[in-house]
Each structure stands twice: as structure tokens, then as C-alpha cells.
């Protein structure tokens, strides 16, 4: 995401709307306006920083109408990337879902590398690595979200997550250029 957002300057992390919706206002080099939903933090950036109950709040935010000057809304992470929320979002914006596809063995290898590097998540104040069961549950959730978007007619672009971030960003940039 950082590579894709290289032309955008984020503002401070702040409340974007009433309750649990936080993020960053963005300004592009060419003065376009955007939003980043979630927190641009060094470890685990994105919507995972938001409350578990954020989805209904974002739905209300969408219903009140978006700033017509916003050209981009960036979001990453599982908090809003759900089978329930993405089709609702598509009713309010021109949405393309980028589904990064990774096999379970590669995901486990990444998890193991994070554990070796000492990168763990905090759970009730305890440092804890992500479990295999959690990885399988996330795979299932992501696949369901992509399938639901396909069924709802929301464009889903599937990319191999083993590619470098620069390669993935280049493909997404090409898609954006074609859509403009």
C-alpha cells in the first residue's frame, strides 16, 4: 500500500466521522483529495486498527454522502474487507477489490518469519504469534468476500501476493490508468 500511495501525503490520524471511523486525509502531488481508512502505522497498518464494530458506522457514514471532491479512498485489512461490507460500499463508490492471493504454505512461512523476527500481535496485553487456525479462518473469510463481490458484480482483481509490493503496485496503477 505504501508503494501505491507514494504520490499522496497523509494528514494526521484522526476521527473521520462520529464514533469508530478513524483514518487520514490525503493530498496528492497533483492536489487530488483522498482518504485512507484505518491507521498508517509501521506494523499492521490499515483497518485492523479500527474497532470491531466499525462496519455499521462506516455504512452510516456512506449514507450521509461522501465529499464529492474525494477521488480516492484507500483501505486495507480485514476490518472492512468483508463479504457484508464490500457490496454495500460498491453501492456508494466505484469499487474495485484487489484480492491478494496467497497459498496457505506461503502464509505459514510468512508467519514463521515474523515470529523469528519477533513480530507478534498483542492480545489482551500478551505477545502472541498468529495461529494456523487463525490463518485458515482468514483465508476462508477473504475467499468468501471475493466470491460475494464476484456474485454482486463488484470487480475483483486477483493478484499473486508472492510478487513484490512494487510489482503489485505497478499492476494496480495500470488498472487505475485504464479506468480513468
Task: Write a structural description.
By secondary structure, the protein is α/β, with parallel strands linked by helices. It has one domain. 36% of the residues lie in helices and 22% in strands. It is built from 5 helices and 9 strands. Strands 1, 2, 3, 4 and 5 form a 5-stranded mixed sheet that branches. It has a two-stranded parallel ribbon with strand order 6-9. It is globular.
**Helix percent band:** 25-40%
How can the largest sheet be summarized?
5 strands, mixed
**Contiguous uncertain segments of 5+ residues:** none
Number of discrete helical segments: 5
How many beta strands in the DSSP annotation?
A: 9
What is the domain tally? 1
Q: Give the topology string: H per helix, E per strand.
A: EEEEHEHEHEEHEH
Helix/strand structural class: alpha/beta
Distance between the first and last residues' Cα: 20 Å
Morphology: globular
Beta-strand content bin: 15-25%
**What radius of gyration results from the CA coordinates?**
17 Å
Instruction: Give the rounded overall mean pLDDT.
Output: 84
Amino acid at each position: 500500500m505504501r508503494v501505491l500511495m507514494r504520490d499522496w501525503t497523509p494528514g494526521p490520524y484522526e476521527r473521520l466521522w462520529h464514533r469508530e471511523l478513524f483514518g487520514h486525509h490525503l493530498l496528492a502531488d497533483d492536489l487530488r483529495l483522498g482518504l485512507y481508512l484505518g491507521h498508517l502505522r509501521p506494523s499492521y497498518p490499515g483497518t485492523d486498527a479500527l474497532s470491531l464494530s466499525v462496519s455499521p458506522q462506516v455504512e452510516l457514514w456512506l449514507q450521509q454522502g461522501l465529499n464529492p471532491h474525494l477521488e480516492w479512498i484507500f483501505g486495507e485489512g480485514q476490518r472492512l474487507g468483508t463479504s457484508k461490507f464490500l457490496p454495500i460500499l460498491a453501492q456508494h463508490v466505484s469499487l474495485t477489490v484487489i484480492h491478494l492471493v496467497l497459498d496457505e504454505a506461503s502464509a505459514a512461512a510468512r508467519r514463521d518469519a515474523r515470529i523469528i523476527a519477533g513480530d507478534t500481535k498483542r492480545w489482551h496485553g500478551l505477545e502472541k504469534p498468529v495461529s494456523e487456525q487463525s490463518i485458515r479462518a482468514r483465508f476462508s473469510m477473504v475467499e468468501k468476500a471475493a466470491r460475494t463481490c464476484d456474485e454482486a458484480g463488484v470487480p475483483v482483481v486477483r493478484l499473486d501476493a508472492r510478487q513484490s509490493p512494487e510489482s503489485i503496485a505497478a499492476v494496480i496503477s495500470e488498472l487505475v490508468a485504464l479506468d480513468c
